[in-house]
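In this section we walk through a basic example: taking a raw amino acid sequence and producing a predicted 3D structure, encoded as discrete structure tokens. The instruction is simple. Fold the sequence below.
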Amino acid sequence: MNGAALAAQRQYMVKHSIAPRGVRDQRVLSAMLEVPRHVFVPEELAEFAYEDTPLDIGEGQTISQPYIVAWMCQALELQPGDRILEIGAGSGYAAAVLSRLCAEVHTIERHEALAIGAGRRLTQLGYANVHVHCGDGTRGWPDGAPYDAIVVAAGAPSIPEPLLAQLAEGGRLVIPVGDETSQTLIRVRREKGKFLREDLGDVRFVPLVGAGGWTGDLGRAVHVSSKIAGVPELLRKIAEPI
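The resulting token sequence is shown next.
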């Protein structure tokens, strides 16, 4: 499929699956029109990239449906100068969208293979203001704190304390909270040292695994590294292409 056809599919997605469902922030809509989702999914699933559905990206993870990505971006109330922390980089798609809306994005992925793939992909596509890290996202990324906004792309049993601590005054945290199969999307604002909670609606995400989240992936035991390494270090560790 050529570039013009893919762009037409992207326009159709935004016009029919996103804009009519309450996403009115024009900057968010423009970012969704710009970022090529088909590049962030496995090649064999590229034909489905602009359908409003999550898709498998390996390691038991999915790329979120486009509407959810847009909805969460709008909920963050981003400004051009903001610095963002994303938990759950996946293939890098949401980070690419976020990068069009703010000054800097730090994104964390616990699966090394996905972190490496996201880092390579984002670099090749020229998203220079996105920094990919591998580690336990429930611990946040203290080296870059505080953040104007934090977004979590996995369902947590409760809000991890490190994420609240790394939120700047006036900052917004958007996170799904609930059990392992269904959650409520919550927005937390930090105002004058207090955290104000607002429920945004029902969602369903893969579990947030880590010290401040679930200890397994839908009942399967997993290893969560206590070391947070940057993508350059991981690329040196794993020479084989993914």
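Looking at the output, two observations stand out. The first strand starts at residue 55 and ends at 58. The radius of gyration is 17 Å. In the next section we compare this with other chains.
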